[in-house]
Amino acid sequence: MYGEDDLSSVPVFAGGFINYGYWRGIPVDRPISEADRVRSQLALYRLVYADLAGRRVLEVGPGTGVGPGWAFAECGPAELHGVDLHPEQVQRCAERNAAAIAAAGGRFTFRQGAADALPFPDAAVDAVVSVEAAQHFDDLAGFAREAHRVLVDGGVLKVATFFVPDAATVGSLPRLLEPFAEGVDREHPLPAFLDDLAAAGFADIAAESIGEHVWPGLDAWVAQLGQPEGTWPRRYLTAWRDGLLDYFVVTASKLTPASAPADGARPRSG
């Protein structure tokens, strides 16, 4: 689904960013234009890339390269490197951003690699980000360890995607949502991922729910595209309202040895 097929051609992902969008400030109680939909996806990228100007950034799961291309041009990272498991996606990213890559002199690249085996040396980047991709990863603990390894001391991790808020409900989503039934998306419990980050050595771990700015807007857009109520694309809103799924921005820091707490950092959410 995310290899040979190009999801950027699917109407729900108008504009090619391939994310559900951050709809804060975008009215959804009236007809939604394609420009509105693109703006929602851009807003999610803007949320993740805030404060990363001048830093060397590694994005894990860069889609077809639309988001990283915008971020490299507009957000001012010193470097931006995308890693994707699928060679087809890497090729799409490279082709879409060919001119910018050629002009960047090695500061803007895409390469194949796994989230739990990143093709970078230790302490190679200042920030690791992932925008609506971690729900596909098989091994979030491995991703946490690799992100920590490739970050410099003082580096930051930012992950935006949907998680299961309570591990006790795991098993519910495949009955509601086709991507979970097919194994495209994983029922990753948020508390387990926060524990993975702490075990990998991260500190200042936090998770902010942004579901109120994701699910109602997505549902309004999908409904406008003609999906009737009760079909699986309309059940994301139901799953969120029932507490089975939510969207989070997770952040963490790799502290310098001198500032690292002796007993580690306790993850928090809110």
From TrEMBL:
From the Swiss-Prot or TrEMBL record, what is one GO molecular function term?
A: S-adenosylmethionine-dependent methyltransferase activity
Q: Which InterPro entries match?
A: Erg6_SMT_methyltransf (IPR050447), Methyltransf_11 (IPR013216), SAM-dependent_MTases_sf (IPR029063)
The UniProt keywords, alphabetically, are: Transferase
The entry's protein name is: Methyltransferase type 11 domain-containing protein
Q: Where is the signal peptide?
A: none
Species: Actinokineospora fastidiosa
CDD domains, from UniProt?
Answer: AdoMet_MTases
- Ranges for domain Methyltransferase type come to 58-157
A Pfam match is Methyltransf_11
